[in-house]
Amino acid sequence: MTIGRSKRPIAAARIETAARRLLDASTLCAIATVSTDGRAHVNTAYFAWSREFAVVWLSDPHALHSRNVRANGSVAIAVYDSSQTWGKPDRGIQLFGSAHEVAESVARDAERIYATRFSEYAEAELGSYRFYRFRPRRLKLFEEPVLGAGVFVTARIRSEGGVAWERTEIYRGGSG
Questions:
Q1: pTM, two decimal places
Q2: I want to staple 89 with a disulfide (CB 3.0 to 4.6 A). Which of 20, 31, 109, 145 is the partner?
Q3: What is the largest CA-CA distance in the chain?
């Protein structure tokens, strides 16, 4: 396998459109956190996202991933359609940034984002669950039906939610 780079930038609007489609492709995400002893941990959760690409989820503050977020806010999130078939065009998105538990005094925004995606949420009894908010700083996406086979695009996410292309990697099979 060889990995090539394209020097031709991809338009921000194209990246944003692909990212939004990919975030809508599944209601579940995989949240990777780091424990205090440096061990990786992954958790699956229902999530919602804002126009600025902030991701919110609900979790028990005593869960390992929640404790990890409190100790070290460095988080990565992956979203993909799990019904994809090997060998067919693939698509998915990875987000890299930081997360924190949302203080109860400012939880309304996270709750609004979450309730917009999950209307059943309003009637759920969630006890001690709290909202968590993730602010991505980078994304890496692949949407082979649109961008082509083996094409991975990395972009920086601006604070207002816009994106800026950083690089395009092209993975090619064979020995090069």
A1: 0.92
A2: 145
A3: 56
